[in-house]
Amino acid sequence: MTRQSLIRIKAIAWKEFVQIKRDPRSLGLSLAIPIFLLFIFGYGLSLDIDHVRTVVWNQDAGSELTRNFLLNFKNSRYFRIVTYSDNYRDIQHMIDSGHVLMALIVPKHFSHYLESGKPAPLQLILDGSDANTALIARGYVQTVVSKYNVNLMTDTFAQAGLTAPESVDARSRIWYNMGLTSTWFIVPGVIAIIIMIVAALVTSLCIAREWERGTMEQLISTPVKAPELVIGKFIPYFAIGSFDLLVGVVMARFLFGVPFRGSYLLLAFFSVLFLTGALSQGIYISVVAKTQLMASQLASLTTMIPTILLSGFIYPIFNMPKFIQAVTYLIPARYYIVILRSLFLKGVGIRTMWDEGLFLLLFAFLMLGLAVKKFKKKVA
Question: Which is the most buried residue in 49, 65, 230, 351, by most CB within 10 A?
Answer without folding.
Answer: 230
